[in-house]
Predict the 3D structure of the following.
Amino acid sequence: MIEIRDVYKAFGSGLRPLQGVSLDVPTGTNVVVLGKSGSGKSVLLKSIVGLLVPEHGSITVAGEEVVGADRRTLQSIRRKVGYVFQSGALYDSLTVGENLAFPLEKTRGITGSEARERVMHYLEQVGLPEKVNKMPSELSGGQRKRIGVARTIITEPEYLLYDEPTTGLDPQTTKEIAELIVHLKQDLKITAVTVTHDPYCLHIVADTVAYLEEGKILFNGTKDEAHRSDVEFLRIFFSLQEHRV
Amino acid sequence: MNHLKSVILQFGSYTQFIGRFFRTIFTPPHEFRQIMRHVDDFGAMSLPLIAVVNFIMGLILAMQSRPTMEKFGAAAFIPAMVTISIVRELGPVITALLVAGRVASGIGAELGSMKVTEQIDAMECSGVDPYNYLVTTRVIALALLMPIITLYAEFVGIFGSYVAEFLATGVTLRYYYGQVIESLTFVDVVPGLLKTIAFGFAIAVIGAHKGFNTDSGTEGVGRATTSAVVLSSLWIILIDMILVKVSITYFPNP
């Protein structure tokens, strides 16, 4: 379970994206976080994994405190949490296979034939085994995102944080990635937080929905409750979903 | 006032950055394979340029010196004069400035683009220390490589001066190199090579710091690249000034 309590985060520029955020992510669920652009959704995800340090509040992942944790504790937390970046964030200088093998070798000490087998297994999971020797620059946006997912799940994390996994993709790839997220949750029992602007992605992957505005969670409930909510952003969002889905 | 604040903040940021280097250098994992890869890359990146520039520099130095030296009847001292100029000062500094142009910009651009495309964050998330993997390895590689590159540059520079002298007088290579070796002492060679370790350290630290702290997307990468070259060139000259004074104090001329 991920527990976020009264988290505040500000930047030197005067920006204060999180102003008392509290949210629970129960084990085995996928919580979709919605919010306007610049509302602090990615800041929240980065705070969960310790990439950004909040000024105040508490974030626990499987009982371990992230805020103020030392490097060793953060490493222990990061072994449990995978982060899927918006762009895929694949290492440019490595091939797809090397990208996947990198966290295996560096954090789990798995090399050689065992690493190769695992790389091929997870590439098959995301449907791209033939890309093993390609460089990231030779992949399309959707392929990069799928490889990014494969690189994240190859270390078998218990939690996954998806930062806009379907943004900028065509409908077919959006569907494939959304289904992959559902498949990972069901088959690997992964607990997830998904930040998205995509009504279709929300429709497919969400167990519950949280809405972030002005640094606070203004709504937290099921999809049905979100659908009936009188929060203006959610009304507009779900009316768009009805048009698209 | 704002400028002063920014200078102090930069100084603090560099101090932290360098402090982190000395912490990670003694902490496993030690990425030896990565260090060797960077030695290979940096060498391949700079050697052709360094060879051409140092050859021409040696050639010009000998050509420019000849008329004046002849006027004073001291043409026989040209090999010694050119060699000492190259070995003590011109070789190390010119090589470091060329490496700053090639390698500092390369490090700044590579790490900068990794930063803006979240690759450094991805590495951090996967439990790998990006500082150790990306910065420490590059700093060690360049600090180790600089004396080797400089030795090579000096050799090529002296060969350039021989070519000029051969064209002017027909002197043999054997005789010329005999003169060169005779003119050199430990005090000429070693301090010059040792200071290149400091140059390599400065070039890699500045390039990596600029890359690691890049923001504002691709525009930021461009800024990081340019300022890495400018700042590392400036620091090479400053470090040289300090180390020349130190070497004169501790290794006085015989």
User: Anything to note?
Assistant: The interface with chain B takes residues 46, 49, 51, 71, 75, 78-79, 81-83, 85-87, 89-93, 102-103, 106-107, 151, 155 of chain A (CB under 8 Å). Chain A has one domain: 2-91+157-244. The mean pLDDT of chain A is 88.
